[in-house]
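At this stage, I put together one protein's amino acid sequence and its backbone structure tokens, which the following lines show:
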Amino acid sequence: MPDSISGIEEGYKIMRAFFTENIERIYSSFMLTLLCIVFLLNHSNQNSSQSMATLLLLLSPLMIIRKPSSNSLPFGLRYFIASSLALFAYSLMIFFHHAPSEIAWTSMRGLSFYLLAPVAVYILWYKPPSMQFIFWLTFSATLFSLYPVIKEYFGHGARGATSAHPIFWGNVCLTTGVVIFILSRDKQLKLRGKNLIGLIGLAMGLTASFWSQTRGGWLSIPIVLIALALFRVVKVRELLIASIILVVIFSTSEMLQKRLLATIETSNSGFHLDTSTQRRIDMWNVSIQAFEENYALGNGLDGFSRKIKELREKNEVKFYFEHAHNEVMEVLASRGIIGLVLLISLISGLLLTYWRHRKSTYAIAGLISTGQFLIYSTSEVFFSTKFTITYFLILQSLLLIACYKVNSHKSVHNEIS
């Protein structure tokens, strides 16, 4: 009996020593895996991805177990973290400054995911992914984007049945499709068939975008093509071929023609905007009225919805929406000029960092993907919604880390083929 007890004690000591010595490595690997799962699920199931993102955020305080590193973060990453935290802190102040409401609480819950910026950066900085890992992760995400398309096509036959919010989902998938295409043109990436894989990934992203029927994403495509040519990701010949293909797709797709051409309707009395576009203009007018109540701080996280309720009671408007369907208008109505300055600081910091590394494939992908989000935000609130905030911060963290970590192991910058 004493021998068996001593054997158990010895086994316990061995197990304890193993976990004590390896807990940091195990935790880092687990958090990286969870981060990748959230990124992948962003392209297929929004509800699951947000649940996993919440878990990622809740587990992040355990990062204090990590030993201090002498390898400090470069300024670009520190600024990215600081501007994200400033956005969160200011939003929290605005939340407590006004009377609570369900819409304000929902908005604050979404804005709290700006806390993912330091989490994602530290996870990736201490366990940096390789070029091949980033490439296959991005390509896998485009594969995930096909799941809602296939399920809805053979099941319900209508967009949005799986993706919860088709506009957000479609634009996220389009962004990832463009990113994988850019990464596939990196000469430093030693992978057979990478150009074909990049084209397949782009095609899957475009498929999800077309299925979502979101015009904001489609309008970004010509601008993206021009940017790809300017950064020499594609040759002029390839740009012309892509343009011809898009024209053919548009001319043969009745759905695309209806969605785009219906924006402006003509009649004997002149030009008229379709209901969706006109409603957005009406909402922006409501946002301006809410903004005028407090130029500096805005009218609260539910400022737009409160103003629209007030106007409905006066019979000045007959519609109701919780958000302004335009990022600038939403921020001005809810968080004022200070909130808009903080958002511009985050975006401009990213763009400047990428511009300094513009010879890097990852920096080009960062510049174009950030530009895409700015285009999307003209018709929706992409920087104020939990789902798109989560996706944007993880994607930009991946690309920023790659700019610093991947390039630090090379004697020359990435080149575009």
